[in-house]
Structure formats: C-alpha cells, structure tokens
Amino acid sequence: MRSIQIGRLLRANTGGFVAGCRVANFEADAPSLGALVRAPLGGDMQLYGLIYDIHIDDDGLVRQLVTAEGVDEAAIADNRQNRTVPVEMSVLAVGYQQDGQIYHLLPPRPALSLDVVTLCDDDELRRFTSSGRFGYFRHVLRNRELPAGEILAAHIRQAQHAHAARGNPTWAAAASQELITLLRDDYSTLMSVLSALSDTMMDF
Amino acid sequence: MSLDFQQVREQVSRLGEQAPGRERRLKALRQQARDLLQIHAGELESLRQKVQAVVRSHDPSLRCAIPTLERLNACSPLPVMPRRATLFAADGSQIYLDRHAAAEYFLINIGAIRMEYGDEQPPAVTVQSDLYYGDDLHISGAYPSEEKISLLRDLRERQRLADLAEQNTRPAIALTDGSLELWGASLEQEPDSLEVFLESLARLEVAGASVAGYVDKPGEDYVVRLLEIAALPVENAKERPLRGVRDIDLFREILGPGERSAVFEVQTRSAGIYRRRSASFAPHFFYLNVGRQGHPWLARVDILAWVASDRHRLDDLHTVLVHQCRMLGTRPYPYVLHRAHEIARVTADEKGQVELMITNELRRHGVPVEESHKQYHKNLPGKGRYSQ
Predict the structure, then answer these.
(1) B115 CB near a chain A CB, below 8 Å?
(2) Which of the residues A49, A129, B112, B264 could staple to A91 if both were Cys, CB 3.0 to 4.6 A apart?
(3) Is this complex scored with an ipTM above 0.85?
(4) Residues B369-387: pLDDT tens digits?
(5) Are residues B184 and B150 in contact, defined by beta-carbon separation less than 8 angstroms?
(6) Residue of A71, A78, A84 best to disrupt the B interface, most CBs of B under 10 A
(7) Cβ-count burial A113-141 (b if 16+ within 10 Å, e if not)
(8) Cα separation of A194 and B217, whole Å?
C-alpha cells in the first residue's frame, strides 16, 4: 500500500489539526474515519493523528442546485472540479516520531499551514500501532466531544487488517483488552466502545 | 447621525396607502395592453411603417419594439435540445479607483466559463485580472469615473467572449448578463469604446457565435410602447396612455413554461448606430418564460440580427437558455452566468489584499503612500455603516 497525499493543513494546535482538499481529489483517494495520517514537523519529525471528522460545507449555489428537478451532470462536475468548496478533515494528534522513535504523546508543536497531510500506509500503521502499549488511545478517550467508540472501532478495524496481513491476527484482541482496562472505571464509555467494536464484525 | 427611522416610517406608510390604488389602475392598464396585443397581433407591416413615420416626423428618440416576421402574440414552444452545443459566458467585476485610498489604481476582473453540451468534460473556467495604475489611470486625460471603469469592464467582457469564440472550432453561444448594448454609455461621446465594442461583435459574428444578453427581471416597455403607437394617431404618438405597464406584464399571461415570444427589433437612437454600422448588428430581442407551471418567470434575451434571422441559432439559444435556467431549480437563471459572476467577483477581502500588495511594493521601492485623512477617519473602528 502506498502513502497517499490527502490534503494540506488549514489550521492546527498541538492537540490536532484540520486538513483540506478539493472535492475532486477527495473522490479519488478518499481517506476514512479513524484513519492514521501524518504531517511533517520539521527535520525528521512526523506528527501522527487519527481522522475523527470529515465534513463538506454547503454554500448558496449548492443549496440552489438541489432544488432543480435533476442536478445536471455538468453542474456536479463543475462544482467538484472548479469551485473552491474544500473537504475538511479534522485530525486528533495521537503521537509523533523523532529520531526514528515513535511516541504516543502530544507533539512538541503543531504542523504548519499548508503542510502536506499524508495517509499512512500499512507499514506505517503497523509500526505506529505496535509501538508501546496503545498509549495513543488515551488521546481519543480523553476528549468527551468525540464519538470515541466509532473512531476507535474504525481505527482498530483498519489496523487489524494491516497486522493480520503480516501474520499477526491477535493485535485487535490486545487492543480491545487494553481499552477494557483503560475504561474499567467508566462503564458507559466502555459499553459504547465495545458496542461499536462488536459492530465491526471482527473475530477477536 | 444614523438613519431617522421615524421619517422613513412616515414615508413608508404613505407608500403603503397609495399602493392599492396604483395597483388597481395598473391592472386595468395591463388588461387594456393585452387586448391591444390581440387586436394588432397580425399588423406587422403597417406597424413597421407607423413606427418609421413616428420616428421620422414626431419622435426621433422613440424607444419601442418593431415587429419582425412573427405575430406580436406568437408563442414558440421549447425546441428540441441540440445534440452538441458550446456555451460561453463572461462576466466582469472591478475595484473602482479610490483617490482617498493609500494606493491609486483600479482593477478589472473578467471571469469566463465554457460548457460543452454532449461532452462528459466538466466546464472550463478562466479568469483575467488586469491592474491599471500610473499612467494607465488617465483614461482620456482624466481620472476615470466609475461609469468609465464599468464601460471598460463591459468592453473587456465582450473581448473575452470574442477570444474564446475564436479559439473554438464549433459555432457557440456567447452569453453575457444584461443588455447587449453598452451600459451607461453615450455612444456618440465614446467613439473609441464604440469601435472596440463593434470590433468585438464583428469577431464574434465571424467566429459564428450566437451572441446574447440575458436580462433578468426586465423592466422595459418596448412592446407596450409599440401597442400605444398602434392605438394612437401618428401625430399623438408621444402620448403614453399605458405608462407603467411593462412588457413582461403582457407576456407573463401568454407564454407557457419554456416558451418564447416573437422576436422584435429594437427602435432606439443607439440601435440605429449599430444598424448603420452593419445590418447584421441590428439589436433584436425576445421574451422567454424560464419559470415552471404556475410560477412564470420572464427574461428578455437580447440578440443581434445575425442570430434573429437564423432559425437554427434561435432555436438552439432558446432551448439552451431554458436548460441553463432549469439547472438552478426554483430560482431560474442561467447557470453559466451565475458561475461567470462567481468567478469574476472581487470580494472585499481580496480588495484589501490587492491594496496591501500594492502599498508594500511601493514602500519597498521607496515611494511614499498615504491614504487621505478622510479615509483614515472613515476606517476608524465603530463606524460600521451600510454605505460609505
């Protein structure tokens, strides 16, 4: 699996960032909820994050176009290819890499405007998720505004696929066990996360 | 001191009191006009002669419609969509010269879009931004007024359309917003602009483009004026018994969704200038119902004689315009014109960026820049106003 450039950074802080891309690009190489992405931090440092929201804003013309009896193909193509309506992806910072070492900590500084945001390939995904003891989960669980169960379920499904492809079928079970440990004192969040995980139809 | 709403309120109240009476009077006049349209619908040649007689002997500046080959009350149904068609649209916007600002310049921005019917490709868009500064500011030896800048913008729109039409290998429809005639210009006083404009029209004609101006919510009364002339003796033709009735009041009742009216020639002083240059430049127009059943919406479409006299061109323009308007659903308006406007539009933010770029560049070269004290005080915070 190759690394795919999915957009450029619009705004950021140390806790995360928002990346944008044109709708046309988004169609071709669409990233998904829970996907691991990276952005440069200067030198050999890389920031890692999980996509927790993808949204597309409307505008007056789009709202007017949907009132037509059938939206013309040319108008759809024009809106997607020519108009400046970006897809915005919100990313939660979950770690960084420095001197070849991966840390599941918040980055020392945010990435900069217009930095390229890249979807991590399977090798990077395996490397990031097998480093340490799932410390990056706490960044997702800490933020009460996020649909933690949905994000983690989507992420674990993608990561499990990458690990299983390299002969490690037990990664998801270990990740789930860690979540149960982290949420042992928070029953409602635990149930929410386990419910979402069970809907991924994975066999742990 | 802000707006005195008490004063405005009293005037609005009077406006409301007068409105029902005015509406009743107009309703009767509209019916009278519709009756006249039916009575004189077939008198094409005699009306043409009567208009010429009025212009010759009583009113050289007469503004009215001249019948062509179709009955005055004709309704042409929506033709079949052509299998292939190319549509261009151009629109312009500008930053006017502000002598109180730190930098003295003006800018014209022309947006254009090309859409191919029968082709899978998305429309192609282009933008042309031209900055005028230094010696360029002195058009005709003086600082340009807003009207002059608007005129230059209109000329650039037509030139852009001509450029695009010449690059195209197939005959196309070339669309602009508003009347085809130059906006706000006294043509006799602007011979150079008129030449540029006529040259653009000639290039479009040679390139085989069907030029059209789309006028949304038109307020003219060219056909109503023709009916007044039809009903009055030549010597009384300056009277206006149907004043206040607009052409769209006539055709709204007649034209079904997608239908167009008869094509009329324009009788105005400026139309004569175009006609004298070339018979194929004679301005014509028709009305088009781009609305839906129960929700008529009339537009006027300005064309020139070379389009008016060619049935195929006319049909293609008719059907493509209706299709374009339907793309925008409940608020019919040609999609490409909206997009050309959107591409061309210069936002207040962009204006600020341009000004910053210019002042930074001038300062970098040691040229002093300074806004007027008047502008400085207008920019003070807390002075948010609807207009400056």
Answers:
(1) yes
(2) A49
(3) no
(4) 888 888 888 887 765 555 4
(5) yes
(6) A78
(7) eebebbbbebebbbebbbbeebbbbebbb
(8) 60
